[in-house]
Amino acid sequence: MDLITGHFAWRELMATDPGAASAFYSALFGWNPTLQSHPETGEYTLFSLGDRPICGLMAAYGDLPPIWFGYASVESVEDATQRAWSAGATILMPSMEIPTIGRFAIIADPEGAHICPFTASPSLSPSMPPPTQTPIAAHGTFGWAELRCGALESAAAFYAKAFRWSFNRHEEPGSTPWLEVQAEPEPVASLGADQVEHAVWHHYVRVASLEKTLERALKLGASVVEPPTAVPGGVTALLADPQGAIFGLWSSNG
């Protein structure tokens, strides 16, 4: 599988009640859950749309709260983790291998945002289709990742060193500057300054109608973290699922 720098190869939810989380997201996005069992990780739920894998779900462990993780493609997990550590990151889980899937680690950047460097295995198990690398504009697929941080330039320096990312700067009069992660065939992530207690990555799911999806999410027990906001190319909102994990909605149609 080709690795695309600047892309998130996979998303994964850590939940305190995986069964309840599976029911919530299946009802919200139409994802199809398949419960699997791995010797290394225990029970794991693979969400898909048709035959297209979308993301995963497993029980939270240690002191981790319910949280969405993004797995960022790198050429070498070990090298990226070492660069991250030397740039001030905290290594929450050192590099480990999931046979036939790949290698990953869990780190917290210098401001506390969680992210997983990931390198795919050359040979993936037929039971776990390759994580998608190139985004598609379909309801229920992940379309964007956004880092909210306190110190934009410091964050950019960290990700440039640890993940070898480069950026396009956007700065309009009267607005806060933000950085777009350069990637092919199109960018799928950004960094922006905000007044936050600690930095956090938000992962946005494309939806056909943000209004209808938001209404459905609230009926299923979600809460609004950030109300619908107009952005270039559409409208976004941030929600917390019933267990507190924050995720985003993005629609080009409103």
In words, what does this structure look like?
With 254 residues, the protein is an alpha+beta fold. Helix content is 17%, strand content 44%. The strands form 2 sheets. An 8-stranded mixed β-sheet has the order 2-3-4-1-5-8-7-6. An 8-stranded mixed β-sheet has the order 10-11-12-9-13-16-15-14. A hairpin with a 7-residue loop joins strand 10 and strand 11. The longest helix has 12 residues.
Q: What's a concise summary of this model?
A:
The protein has 254 residues and is of the alpha+beta class. The chain has helices at residues 18-29, 77-86, 152-163, 210-219; strands at 8-15, 32-38, 42-49, 52-59, 67-73, 90-98, 102-108, 114-120, 142-149, 167-170, 178-181, 189-193, 200-206, 223-231, 234-240, 246-251.
Topology:
Layout: E1 8-15, H1 18-29, E2 32-38, E3 42-49, E4 52-59, E5 67-73, H2 77-86, E6 90-98, E7 102-108, E8 114-120, E9 142-149, H3 152-163, E10 167-170, E11 178-181, E12 189-193, E13 200-206, H4 210-219, E14 223-231, E15 234-240, E16 246-251
Parallel strand pairs: 1-4, 5-8, 9-12, 13-16
Antiparallel strand pairs: 1-5, 2-3, 3-4, 6-7, 7-8, 9-13, 10-11, 11-12, 14-15, 15-16
Helix pairs in contact: 2-3
Residue runs with pLDDT of under 50 for 5 or more positions:
125-135
> Order of strands side by side in the largest beta sheet?
2-3-4-1-5-8-7-6
Backbone CA Rg: 17 Å
Element-level helix/strand string: EHEEEEHEEEEHEEEEHEEE
Return the average pLDDT rounded to an integer.
Answer: 89
Please tell me what the overall shape is: globular
Quantity of strands, as a count: 16
The termini sit apart by 34 Å
Question: Percent of residues in beta strands?
Answer: 35-45%
Largest sheet: 8 strands, mixed
Structural classification: alpha+beta
Provide the helix percentage.
Answer: 10-25%
Specify the number of helices. Answer: 4
